[in-house]
Automatic annotation (TrEMBL):
The organism's taxonomic lineage, starting at the top: Eukaryota, Metazoa, Chordata, Craniata, Vertebrata
Location of the PARP catalytic domain: 1-165
Protein name listed in UniProt: Poly(ADP-ribose) polymerase family member 16
This protein's UniProt keywords: ADP-ribosylation, Glycosyltransferase, Membrane, NAD, Nucleotidyltransferase, Transferase, Transmembrane, Transmembrane helix
Transmembrane segments: 175-198
Amino acid sequence: MQPSGWAAAREATGRDMLAADLRCSLFASALQSYKRDSVLRPFPASYARGDCKDFEALTSLFGEGTYLTSDLSLALIYSPHGHGWQHSLLGPILSCVAVCEVIDHPDVKCQTKKKDSKEIDRRRARIKHSEGGDIPPKYFVVTNNQLLRVKYLLVYSQKPPKRTSSQLSWFSSHWFTVMISLYLLLLLIVSVINSSAFQHFWNRAKR
């Protein structure tokens, strides 16, 4: 018997709090990402056929498939931070990179050398109808997703900057003036204490 919605949510939270939190964040981010149709204006005419907009062709420069890279810094460029669940323990602004396992197969297109040769295997370096030519180094295009499996998810959190009070911000902006004023005040107190008038008043007060 399948547990109810609330029971299933409590069970998932009890097993792994952060995993359940990440699911909520990914769901919230997906809800906010459906605005791409209104963001990209004007839409490139070569990728539009009447009222139909071919987003897959627009983002597939080297042919259709799932794009991967062996360079983490390159993957981070294509995974910018986005807004997720505002109450997430991981943070409201997240970036996610999938670490995948790929089978070495002809349907996985990349720059690889032929067996027992130093030449590039052109059959695996280019996909049919590719607009960008050969696949660049460190790129992999998987044309059959059955050869691909997600192993891990790398989650990067960008915490919002802490808001400081106006008093602290003013002090940090004028700290030099404040320190000079305190130093002058200290000199004034020392000079007053060492003056003859103060010594006379102090001696009379002690009697």
